Amino acid sequence: MSAAAALSGAERQREFAYEAADHRAVAEIVYGEVGIVLPESKAQLVYGRLAPRVRACGLKSVGDYVALVGRDAAEKVRMIDALTTNHTSFFRENHHFDDFVERMWSNLSARLTSGGRVRLWSAACSSGEEPYTWLMAMFGTDRAGAQRMLKRDIRMLATDVSPSVIATARTGRYAAPTLRTIPDDLRRTWVTGNGDVQAIDPLLRDAISFRALNLLGDWPMRGKFDAIFCRNVMIYFDEPTKARLQARLADQLEVGGMLYIGHSERLLGRVEQRFKCVGRTAYLKVSA
Ligand SMILES: C[S@@+](CC[C@H](N)C(=O)[O-])C[C@H]1O[C@@H](n2cnc3c(N)ncnc32)[C@H](O)[C@@H]1O
Hints:
The chain has 12 helices and 10 strands. The protein is α/β, with parallel strands linked by helices. Strands 6-2-1-7-8-10-9 form a 7-stranded mixed beta sheet.
């Protein structure tokens, strides 16, 4: 079935009018703000995510909602929030964490111990599972060691454009089924409580600076990072946006630092020359 046919078929069931022109207007705003491409084939998905906002705003159509978003910056943020796909999990694409620990962590921890600094960035971290996993992989079951190391000059930044997932990440609280992909020994070490909602140890939670940040906007960070995870976000971008973002990520990494991207992503064009691929979607920065 063509996208246009899917649109008109679904329209009969819809609570709010959602014309092809509305979809194009939404797609244009979202692309302009955060780089996410929303082809017409995503019209049903977009409608499903926006309908609750249209209802909450007391409007009669998505067209009215688009007009509201044009004059209300806070609603625009809520629209983008509603349209981001935040799927993630603890220990997702786990070999990246193993790679970081094996390749980088003994050198970086030696650097910390001798008074140096370490900077890590989980870019597009969604609700926080990725940065928490990263710290658990680094420290294993050694909580006392983590306590000692986290007093040193180590910072982990974790950012996402969606304020609601950043708010979740900051709480460090997750539904019990979400925590099941954490290996048992690590879960025993780092997760407290045994109810429906359980908490990540505050030692890890407080070690991460969670911030709302649009990867397409200005980045306030001045210093470079020793490793960046930027996984499963570029899939939503077109090639020019990916190329620009990858060049900026490369600029933001130390030579000798690692960039990890999602399994279905790849480095494009000229930026590839600045990296050596050292594992599946794992890249060592080799030249400035
Ligand atoms: C599928 S999740 C990936 C989460 C995690 N990195 C992982 O691999 O499990 C993609 C995340 O990218 C975020 N995102 C999308 N566009 C963004 C942008 N322009 N700037 C920052 N984050 C963005 C979304 O809000 C979403 O949380």
